[in-house]
Amino acid sequence: QVQLVESGGGLVQPGGSLRLSCAASGSTLPYYAIGWFRQAPGKEREGVSCISTVGGKTTYADSVKGRFTISRDNSRDNANITVYLQMNSLKPEDTAVYYCAAIWRLCEGEYDYRGQGTQVTVSS
Questions:
Q1: Mean pLDDT confidence for 69-90
Q2: How far is residue 113 from each of residues 19, 68, 80, 97, 109, measured CA to CA in Å?
Q3: For the purposes of burial, counting CB atoms within 10 Å of the CB of 69, is it exposed (0-12), middle (13-18) or buried (19 or more)?
Q4: How does the average pLDDT of the chain come out, rounded?
Q5: Which residues neighbour 32 within 8 Å (Cβ) at sequence distance 6 or greater?
Q6: Could you give the CA distance from residue 24 to residue 36 in angstroms, rounded to a whole number?
Q7: What pLDDT is stored for residue 108 in this prediction?
Q8: Amino acid 45: pLDDT
């Protein structure tokens, strides 16, 4: 079992920045990659970014490359980590509910666990 809790969403103006946090915990956590995906009303779910537990490899959607950065802080222990999504140069089209999710082993395929989500709204 893996628990995920997101925080850090909010309202920001276009061009602004936000940092999302995902507090992840669980005895099997070391076997999971952690990713972020987003869901906007009327749109399909979009995978945004992911960081694997093997070598810390990162992936990004083309729509956020160069603007978003994913990172992981596992200074406590491998069963309790925080994954961050630094979002810069935000655009109105980035508006969505952002979820963090645990994917088995690599940043591929469907997730096994996800958090409750945090709303990000980019508007002037």
A1: 89
A2: 21, 22, 15, 16, 12
A3: middle
A4: 94
A5: 2, 24, 53, 102, 103, 104, 105, 112, 113
A6: 12
A7: 87
A8: 95
Distance separating alpha carbons of residues 10 and 76, to the nearest angstrom: 27
Listed residue (52, 51, 48, 43) closest to 67, CA to CA:
48
Residue 23 burial (10 A CB sphere; 0-12, 13-18, 19+): middle
Residue 109 has a pLDDT of 85
pLDDT tens per residue across span 20-34: 999 999 999 989 999
Contact between 119 and 97 (Cβ < 8 Å): yes
| Six-digit token string for 47 | 């995978």
- Return the structure tokens found at 103: 């994917």
pLDDT at 105: 87
- Classify burial at 90, counting beta carbons within 10 Å of its beta carbon; exposed 0-12, middle 13-18, buried 19 or more: buried
- The pLDDT of 73-100, averaged and rounded, is 92
With vertex at residue 54, the alpha carbon angle to CA 74 and CA 45, rounded to the nearest 5 degrees, is 85
